[in-house]
Amino acid sequence: MVPAIKLNSGFDMPQVGFGLWKVDGSIASDVVYNAIKAGYRLFDGACDYGNEVECGQGVARAIKEGIVKREELFIVSKLWNTFHDGDRVEPIVRKQLADWGLEYFDLYLIHFPVALEYVDPSVRYPPGWHFDGKSEIRPSKATIQETWTAMESLVEKGLSKSIGVSNFQAQLLYDLLRYAKVRPATLQIEHHPYLVQQNLLNLAKAEGIAVTAYSSFGPASFREFNMEHAQKLQPLLEDPTIKAIGDKYNKDPAQVLLRWATQRGLAIIPKSSREATMKSNLNSLDFDLSEEDIKTISGFDRGIRFNQPTNYFSAENLWIFG
Q1: Residue 230's pLDDT band (boundaries 50, 70, 90)?
Q2: Strands (DSSP E) along 49-149, which ranges?
Q3: What positions does the entry give for substrate binding (predicted)?
């Protein structure tokens, strides 16, 4: 049984979930279905992943076969940058719910603290970062307060049980907390031994905000984007120190990295299309690392972030991001 984290909204969130980023639509339905069979109950999706219809089909299949009930699942999705204007939030959430075949999300997040000009879903969906689908970046004037107010209405209308943010840093989180009537239940961030972000974790804990870690294996998720750091850094799954720690507990490197996060109170959302790996990741909670081993792994910290706009865009487009 996967332990749960009690959110400040009063709901329980499974500590180990299944991430849906880069799950190809051609296999997404089967991947979600098989993950449910393997024991996963939390699924972390997003508009930008472009696979919500197929993921919803996997959920529907599992429910129809009686493997799981809807109320036993914890479905997460995210608001993309082009829908930050207040009047755009509810319509896109309703579309995403329809794509999933659901009446509500368990958790809905602001994907990035970046507001871009609206792109109608009939023109291009998911819209991506560029207004023209190629190279043009057009910012929106929507403030985070405007967007968050619209997010709060989702809770009032029963479209999402909890709301939260993703890829926010301390200053933005502090600002949001000044005016939030509904406090963010979770903060989802890139988190791995090369990017520990301990001060941000301390802030979230002090404010009663649960933290979900993504990209737990560091550069592994980003090597395909030809990022310099992702190419040069030692892959964590192949690191001799991580392997040695795993050997001590008779665990593989992935389980060590995941346990390093969960033992420190974070939720995790690894993914795999392989059934054996699905089960291995899900069962990464059945041992405890020593404090010395946790300290050793945390010592890998380089403050290196892979998932940021400066790693994706040309110099002429970066002015929008400061």
Answers
A1: low
A2: 74-79, 105-110
A3: 111
